[in-house]
Amino acid sequence: MTFTKAQDVINYLYSLPKLHDKADLSYIKRVLAFLGNPQDQIKTIHVTGTNGKGSTSYYLSSLLQKAGQKTGLFVSPYVFEFNERIQLNGQNISDNKLVEVANTVEAALTAICQIDSQFSLVTFEYEVVMAFLYFSLEKCDYAVIEVGIGGEHDKTNVITPEISVITTVGLDHEKIIGPTIEDIAREKSGVIKKNRPVILGNIPQKVLPIIEQKAKSEHATVKLLGRDFTVSDEKQLLYKDHSQKISFLPKPLVEGYDIGVAVQAFSLLDLTLSASDIQDAINHTVVPGRYQVLQNNPLIILDGAHNIQAVHNLLDFAHHEQKKRHGQIRILIMMMKDKDIAQVFDLFKPTDQVYLTTINYPRAAKQDDFPAWVQERYPYFSDWQTSYLNLKQASQTNDILLVTGSFYLVGEVLQREKHNARSRN
Question: Which PROSITE patterns match (predicted)?
């Protein structure tokens, strides 16, 4: 097979199976070896965590670029277009390059299949191979690699990074890497490599010993938020470690933790940036769909929070803001049917006005996918566009409107706002 258009590549990727019968790395390692192990030809930083790994990856990418490094970035999911998943110096991979690397991977698969006719890759493996191949061909100085799910068995875990990062550990994907938070911590600690430092963010005390023991066994130096570096929410966001103190523009503290982890990770590299350059790089980083403020009066925030920990953090921030604004909180939420739907809805206050919606996507929860008590308590609107517009119009100057539950819904809203902005111009 030979691809000629980027959309053909994307359609093909989505037609592939999502999982192998066994959750090991033998398939992806075989293809990478055939291609000359491109993942070993670049320096990498490996980022995992239940929440915050995408934000941390974006911040690290900005810092590396500011330091003059040719920087690759592999993240998921995307908000606007598939090409966001693979970036070079902050620019999405072009359609032509996407087709080029996909054809190279496809040629490798064809050759392997002549020996082993049953061999194939799943969707995420194919994407990871394309990313490593692209970064190698472009001769990146560094590539920031965000895991898909977990750590030890994640398809990105074929690298020996300069630094590993674990942002948070919480409940998500329990059926795959759980069921307990201890299981999830063990899985995520799989990104820790021998004699390579690991940065730990907001890690619950009950699982911290699991991760520290893994680091000890690998002789990996640990840098821990709250012990080796701190982030505080004063008039501005303040980062401190043993050698520097840097303030950033105000952000939710949970986002500040991601900034702190990124700055600490960067400080361990053999690269130099002044405090003002670090400040500038962070302040100008836009993380799509993550605490993204569309407007301030009323305050409209888009956040792709899709698990218990992320939604809890978002609501904490919104309720804190509500005390200052004395307004109403409205929440438009769409979730995937395989998420912890009931536990998420336990987090809302009786005073929160919550509205359920959906999008045209196979995994998106429809009305009957929500628990009966959720359906009884909150209104459901099948048309997200109408419900979003109505909530936006109903919001007064001091109110807060949250759009959350999935990056897919956030992406739809951002696309709509982008289209409307173009129309006005």
Answer: FOLYLPOLYGLU_SYNT_1, FOLYLPOLYGLU_SYNT_2
3-state percent breakdown (helix, strand, coil) of the chain, nearest 5: 45, 20, 40
249-285 confidence digits (pLDDT tens): 988 877 889 999 999 999 999 999 999 999 999 999 9
pLDDT > 70: percent of the chain: 98
> What is the spatial distance between Cα 380 and Cα 339, in angstroms, rounded to a whole number?
18
CA distance 246 to 192: 28
DSSP-assigned beta bridge partners for residue 146: 47
CB 334 within 8 A of CB 405: yes
Is the CB of residue 202 less than 8 Å from the CB of residue 50?
no
38 contacts 115 by C-beta, under 8 angstroms: no
Question: Going from the N-terminus, what domains does the chain have, and what CATH number goes with each?
Answer: 6-283 (3.40.1190.10), 292-424 (3.90.190.20)
pLDDT category, 173, cuts 50, 70, 90? Answer: low
* CA 247/CA 232 separation, integer angstroms: 10
Other Cβ atoms closer than 10 A to 36? 12
